[in-house]
Queue: 2 jobs
Job 1
Amino acid sequence: MTPMIDVVFLLIIFFLVSSHLAKQETRLPVDLPLASTALANDLEIAPLTIHVDANSQWHIASREIDLPALRTAIREYKNSSIQPSIRIRTDRSVPYDSIEPLLREAAEVGVTDVRIAVLTAESR
Amino acid sequence: MKAPHVVRDSSLEVAMTPMIDVVFLLLIFFVWTSSFDAPESDLPSSVASADQPGGGAEPNPEIAAEAFDEIVIGVALVSTGVTLELNQQPIANLDVLKTRLSEILQLGVQPPVIIDPEPAVSMADAVAVFDAARVAGADRVLFAIEE
């Protein structure tokens, strides 16, 4: 019995860990801007996260996208979501003109809840 | 009938090897599953376009009535960093901006504060100004977009 339980526990741990790592893969490592105020995390909403890396390239779900693809993605997301919300994870060195099209597209499609991911003082 | 043979281990010593096995497994489990990333938060944002001033945020009719009173903070890039303008008046730094904004907000009005960064201004600076407006007490802070 004991060796079997050992093996089963190892398998459980392996699958837990590998699923955790699979989740982390979707997070592009970027240097978020710093802020001292922030919203409390709202677990009710399922935002569409748009990553902007240091080269000002937009990513949705690890795929690089351009403006037409962005428009389609936001529109599809809005149609499928009850409480649409867009979360922008941007590198702090990115110039504003790379973020502005994201805000404009969100507003044109009708998503008014746009969030900018930041690091707050407590998390530093 | 033969009585069952019971092995009695009278010693109360704890078996070390299985305990170490379990402790190591737990250690590995927690080290692997813990995330060393700093927790992230969100800043609420919205956009104000040149066409509809103060638009984009929640359409509250009482607030919309005083939409003419909006505050526009311009952020421009210069060689030494960024310069700030509050309704076209130059502002020395973020602390002055915070003081000026909180003085305005103490009058009891809650005008939309629109951050209008130049295209080349980095998001770090834009978010710093955005954050300063929120620290000053503004509850509707928007980013400006060009039409």
Job 2
Amino acid sequence: MATLRVLVVDDEEEFVNALVERLNIRGVDAQGVTTGEEALDRIEQCSFDVVLLDVKMPKLGGVEVLMQIKARLPELPVVLLTGHGSARNVEMGELLGAFDCLMKPIDIEDLLRVLRQAATEN
Amino acid sequence: MKSLPEKMACKKGLDFFGAVTASLSHEINNVLAIINELSGLMDDHICAAGQGRPLDPAKLKNTVERIAKQVDRGKNYVLRLNRFAHCVDQPTKALDARDILEQITTICQRFATLKKVQLQSIVGQQPVEIVGSPFDLEHVIYRCTEIALGVSAVDSMVVAKLEKTGTGARIILTARDPGQVNQEVSAKLSLVSRLVERLGGTFESVTDPGAEMRLVVDLPRSMLNGQGSESDV
């Protein structure tokens, strides 16, 4: 099976660092960024199979980033990450074509399953 | 039966309570998510050791320190949430307005971060004593902060300053590079005006689009002489 390439986007740097390391341990080629702007730059520079995107971020929020990703690379699947209470954003994300939405804290095995599914189905 | 203005004040107070508790619980959830990943990372290293890969004590120590840092951060959020929840315990009490201003500007840091605006509070060395409802004072400061953050340009700064006056306290919020005062902002300014009036104070806002917005709240030493407190309604 080809190595899964994942971009993790979350403004919590510590969360990104730990999650990227855990995904790498599991054989995923994961990279992390902490802003929406960086995410949009990174998807232009590198190829990814799936983007894991936090909904609540300063300045360019997850929903705006999702819209821009879908405008530039409509085939690139995006999985949203949220804390509780962002139901409106989740609905919006689904409407805009997000593959799935996961609640933090996440179980790493559930996450891997969803990421692989997103990459395969797209 | 409550009058319409009383019902409105009550609803706005609940909105404020909801916004603050939602924000702090979101922060706590973020901390838990980080601890979840860091503890999972430790588990990954331990599992790898079980499969013959040597454990790196320095890496484990580093992960433990990262967890401890998040626990401290989480404790701080819980402390703020708890203090905030207790602000409705006593309808009126003697307050140091400095504590209230710092409490609200700290709570609002997340809102400021999401807007990419810096939020700073300035208080003096001397206590600024006021008698009244902590909740009402927090609500007024929160609403002013909300307006100031809302009109601020990205990467600008909002300053909340507290001064002791001859009759009580003055709170001045300054936002740099504000946009035009639209209908939504006007409605929010009217709300603050009504809230301050109920506490026996006065409110003034001056906006110079592109330059500065100043929100000035003057409160009497005793906020019991106004039309009433939200916590009474």
